[in-house]
Amino acid sequence: MKIIILGAGRVGTSVAESLVSEANDITVIDTDGARVAELQDRYDLRGLVGNATLPSTMKEAGADDADMLIAVTSTDETNLVACKIAADLFNVPTRIARVRNTELQEHPELTGERGFRATHIIWPEQSVTDYLLKLVEFPEALQVLEFAGGAVSMIAVRAFAGGPLVSHPIQDLRKHIPNVDTRIVAIFRNDRSIVCEGTTMVQPGDEVFFLAASAHIRTVMAELRRMDKPVRRVMLAGGGNIGIRLARALERGEGQDSWGPKINVKLIEFNKKRCEYLASQLPSDVLVLHGDATDEDLLGDEGVADCDLFCALTNDDENNIMSALLAKRMGARRTIALINRKSYGELMQGGQIDIAISPSHATLSALLKHVRRGDVVAAHSLRRGAAEAMEIVAHGDARSSRVIGRKIEDIELPRGVTLGAIVRGSDDGAPQVVIAHHDTVIEPEDHLILFVANKRLIPRIEKLVQVGVGFF
Hints:
Layout: E1 2-6, H1 10-20, E2 25-30, H2 33-42, E3 46-49, H3 55-60, E4 68-71, H4 76-88, E5 94-98, H5 102-105, H6 108-111, E6 120-122, H7 124-137, E7 141-147, E8 152-158, H8 173-176, E9 182-189, E10 192-194, E11 207-213, H9 217-221, E12 233-237, H10 241-252, E13 264-269, H11 272-281, E14 287-290, H12 296-301, E15 309-312, H13 317-329, E16 335-338, H14 342-348, E17 355-357, H15 359-371, E18 376-382, E19 387-393, E20 417-424, E21 432-435, E22 447-452, H16 458-464
């Protein structure tokens, strides 16, 4: 696939890194020559220094026969205008723009075919906010991914000593919860993937990924660790776009049980003028505080020791790390920090900071389903971009497809790929979740939920589910 990426910042670099290893023809455009040169040195791609809103630059980048444009510069206007040029002058089929302006989200007619002609819009702050809300809803989880419109979920959780399944083989799971069908699709131990078989022992500290119908995920999590009490007190450090979105969502009751009391939200912002704006925009129930989130006295006075969740959401990695570490030391039950630098995130994740979130990888997950070949409904970047989970539709029939009409044990899945669940339609219209077993047969139009331990295997999966020409 021939892809043009506009912007060589953190998001553009993450996208290029993810796609260049999959035999794509990548061209990256940026006005910063040093960034472009660095990308060309690190990856097998073409770099071009120039203004992406000029038709001449687009033409030089090869827009005449490009399959896709991904506009992820730091400027909304540049991204949208580039999509318009790619559509009107070069007829690029797929045009994706990253847009941060929240007002435009309320007016899709401006960004769609009647406006700037972007085929898909990525809202990065909304992606991160949704990610955080799932962690509020399931405080025991490291990551929560939904498939098939929320019918099935994939959860990553850290196994703790004392969990019923911990220090036991995976096959004991069926004995412990016989009425719940679930599948452990991956286990990472000391940052390495291990084979998941019935006799595989789950050890304390393992990062376990499992699939289950969304209604059953708490039951399965309870097998791996002690269940935490619901989140009721949240402290946010940083009142930027993500901070204000999350504060609004929590005040409205998103990410919490409908029967529970409201979440108490406190937001700390260093900039005084921004504090005044936040106070005017947020409900009166949200307490906006002017101060430094790395100030020990401020955190102590505001009760960080009684906090269920502390989220560091500023634009400064170092401030986020320091404030989250301080909050944890002072007694916050769980801490989350936004960390842009990949090396920082790898150092901090799972230590004193419970979860390190990379905004660029959250954006990448939103992009992947549009980039993948085949009928991909959802795709999520995992393990800091090394792994992936995807939902792909199986089309065709037994003659034209290498998966339909076959048992899972007869399908030649690459080593490192696990087919964990199938979602298929039912007579009443409600999705039917089928946890995959060796004798499960794939039917036409099934939605296959797969865990891919190494993203380099993605092209083989795409080829496996490809429909033969005879079907048409």
